[in-house]
Amino acid sequence: MIFYFWRGLIETLNYNVAIALASNSEKARSEMIIAPILIDFKRQNQEQINIFSGIDFSVEPEKGLNGTCDFLITKSPEMLTITAPVITIVEAKKENLNLGLGQCIAEMIAARIFNQKEGNNINTIYGAITSGTNWRLLKLEGENLIIDLTEYYLNQINLIMGILTASLTSQAR
Fold first, then answer.
1. CA distance 64 to 146
2. Is the distance from CB of 50 to CB of 26 less than 8 angstroms?
3. Among 11, 44, 74, 78, which residue's beta carbon has the most beta carbons within 10 A?
């Protein structure tokens, strides 16, 4: 069922994780664990989203909402420009998820402001901080920030993908 749905991803991760962990670098984790997860997420969502990686996302520099995003998922198949950001993904610093909280929250606020300026009817922005093997999820709804205190692990990839997919579905309402 769900396992079958993500089987190709699980096979890729089974191969990549040992290599990424042995190299012990954020770059390896990003390229070998996080990127394959997000690419499969895009494929499973029938190309109705796009993923931006390492791009400048300067929304309001005067407020400190500027910089390079690790990953940004948009609810649009547009591949050249950011049009409707809905999920921000931040790589954990030194494998510590809490060290990425500030960056993730800032990117979520920037995404909300971006959508308001563009006239996008997107009221909820989701965020994730990940080391590749561990995930923490956030939700910004209006002025309310919810941080899921549950730490999700790579062996729960079906659940992680389900939560990410549900965040897209909730935007359709």
1. 22
2. no
3. 74
3-state secondary structure (DSSP) of residue 15: helix
State the pLDDT at residue 3. 45
| DSSP code for 49 | S
Residue 100 CA: distances (Å) to CA of 97, 103, 134, 135, 162: 6, 5, 12, 11, 22
| pLDDT tens readout for residues 82-102 | 999 999 999 998 889 999 999
What class, spelled out in words, does domain 2-171 have in CATH?
A: alpha beta
E strand map for the chain: 50-53, 71-74, 85-91, 124-130, 134-141, 144-147, 152-153
Secondary structure (H, E, C), 101-123: HHHHHHHHHHHHHHHHHHCCCCC
What pTM, to 2 d.p., does this model score? 0.90
Strands 134-141 and 124-130 come out as antiparallel
Position of tokens 């080391």? 131
CA dist., res. 139 & res. 170, Å (int): 12
Confidence at residue 102, expressed as pLDDT on a 0 to 100 scale: 95
User: Which position has the token pair 């190709």?
Assistant: 8
| Contact between 51 and 78 (Cβ < 8 Å) | no
DSSP 8-state assignment for residue 92? P
